[in-house]
Amino acid sequence: MAEKRPKLCNFVKKELEFFIENCNFTDEELQFFNLRAKNKSMIEICDIMHIKESKATTLSNKVNKKIIKVL
User: Fold this and answer.
1) Is 37:25 a contact under the CB 8 Å cutoff?
2) Number of separate domains in the chain
3) Residue 44 belongs to domain spanning
4) In-domain check, residue 2
5) Does residue 3 fall inside a structural domain?
6) Would you say the pTM of this structure is higher than 0.90?
7) pLDDT tens per residue across span 9-38
8) How far, in Å, CA of 23 to CA of 18, rounded?
9) What is the pLDDT of residues 47-64, one digit of tens each?
C-alpha cells in the first residue's frame, strides 16, 4: 500500500513558513503552494490561477519535489 502524503493544509504555520523560506519556489509555485495550504482543490486553484488542470498537476509535482528535497 502506498504511503499517503500529508496535505499542506495540515501543516502548522511555522512549517509552512519553513517551506516558503527554503524551497525557492517560483512566483507561480508559491501561489499554488499558498492555495493548497488553504485547502483549495485543484479545480478551485485552476479557476483562481486561470490555468489548465495539467498545469496545476505540473505545479503540484514541482512543489512536492522541492518540499521533499528540504526534508
Assistant:
1) no
2) 1
3) 12-70
4) no
5) no
6) yes
7) 999 999 999 999 999 999 999 999 999 999
8) 8
9) 999 999 999 999 999 999
